[in-house]
Design a protein that fits this description.
This protein has about 300 residues and is mainly β. Strand 4 and strand 5 form a beta hairpin. The longest helix is centred in the first third of the chain and has 10 residues, at about 25-30. The two termini are about 25 Å apart. The strands form four sheets. The protein has a five-stranded mixed β-barrel. A five-stranded antiparallel β-sheet has the order 8-7-6-9-10. Strands 11-12-13-15-14 form a five-stranded mixed barrel. It is built from five helices and 17 strands. It folds into three domains: about 15-115, Nucleic acid-binding proteins (OB fold (Dihydrolipoamide Acetyltransferase, E2P)), CATH 2.40.50.140; about 125-195, Nucleic acid-binding proteins (OB fold (Dihydrolipoamide Acetyltransferase, E2P), Beta Barrel), CATH 2.40.50; about 200-270, Nucleic acid-binding proteins (OB fold (Dihydrolipoamide Acetyltransferase, E2P), Beta Barrel).
Length: about 300
């Protein structure tokens, strides 16, 4: 398998660009079974995808457009939504258009996805850390391309320790991320997690000190206090004050940091509405696999952990 990355990673590469520039090189790619990418420019009335190959047109027949289209387990929207986006494929042959005499390439995206499933996805196990690309966001989670356009769900409660109202508070469509394989079902579908890569309570708190005033985001307003996110995996509790609402940005004074109780006490200095983009993700591991992740400090009686089996 020559390409295990999310769809779109191959499109701008020099080799891909060079191959699409020449009919002779496309024929070589056909005989070699080379994986290529092009931009889908049309989904016709029969749901065939037309692809810009630079030197000629390519067509992905409907049943070759995605794994699961033929048996109905994947809906046609999976094809329609690819228009104006990169698609991965192998060339399966060439034909001549009877109307204009032009040669075009027949392509298959499905066969690449099958290879990705059989040679890559099937080898993954719980705890493996992989590359993914966010493809769309729903209130319940983020869907991610984990290779060749194959999708996996990252549930909202697994995105970060700090609770968020919607995945768009963390991610944007097209963003490249790292994720942990949480589970693999009998059909080979992956469920992902992300929070285990964003550091433990102590790792996130180590750069903070009592007496400092730092930025934060209000995540929840309760009668007993206001939860303010300091980092994606760390929140503190501020004293209640009027006029503060969830989603506000805030400047907060750190009263105390209590590792044995896993608490940070805050005072809100100011809060305001602002349309800041999500912060750049900081990952705390470069490992390719984890078996167990413990969020809580050793001194804390309450243990918060993730175990991957």
């Amino acid at each position: 398998m020559t390409n295990l990355k999310p769809e779109g990673a191959l499109l701008p590469t020099a080799q891909n660009t060079r191959t699409l520039s020449s009919a002779a090189l496309l024929k070589e790619a056909f005989h070699a079974g080379t994986i290529l990418e092009g931009r889908a420019i049309l989904c016709d009335a029969q749901h065939n995808l037309h692809v810009d190959l630079g030197c000629m047109k390519g067509i992905i027949p409907k049943n070759e457009g995605a794994l699961g289209i033929e048996d109905g387990s994947v809906r046609d929207i999976a094809l329609i939504s690819r228009v104006n986006k990169p698609v991965i494929f192998k060339i399966t042959g060439f034909k001549t258009d009877e109307k204009n005499g032009e040669t075009y390439a027949l392509l298959s995206r499905r066969c690449v996805q099958e290879e990705c499933r059989d040679e890559y996805i099937s080898s993954l196990k719980s705890g493996d850390i992989i590359d993914a690309a966010v493809t769309h966001l729903e209130p319940f989670g983020a869907f991610c391309d984990v290779g060749a356009g194959l999708s996996a769900l990252l549930p909202i409660d697994s995105i970060s320790v700090s609770r968020i109202p919607h995945p768009c508070a963390r991610f944007t469509v097209g963003q490249n991320i790292r994720a942990v394989v949480r589970s693999v079902d009998e059909q080979g579908r992956l469920t992902l997690s992300h929070k285990e890569l964003l550091g433990t309570w102590e790792q996130n708190a180590e750069k903070l000190s009592a007496g400092e005033t730092v930025p934060g985001i209000v995540r929840s307003v309760e009668k007993y206090g206001i939860f303010v996110e300091l980092t994606p995996n760390l929140a503190g509790l501020a004293e209640y004050c009027e006029g503060v609402k969830a989603g506000d940005h805030a400047s907060v004074y750190i009263k105390s940091i209590l590792p044995d109780r896993m608490k940070i006490k805050l005072i809100i200095v100011d809060s305001f509405s602002a349309d800041y983009p999500p912060a750049r993700i900081r990952y705390f591991t470069d490992s390719n696999h984890i078996d167990r992740w413990v969020y809580s400090p050793e001194s804390c009686d309450k243990v918060i952990e993730s175990i991957f089996i």
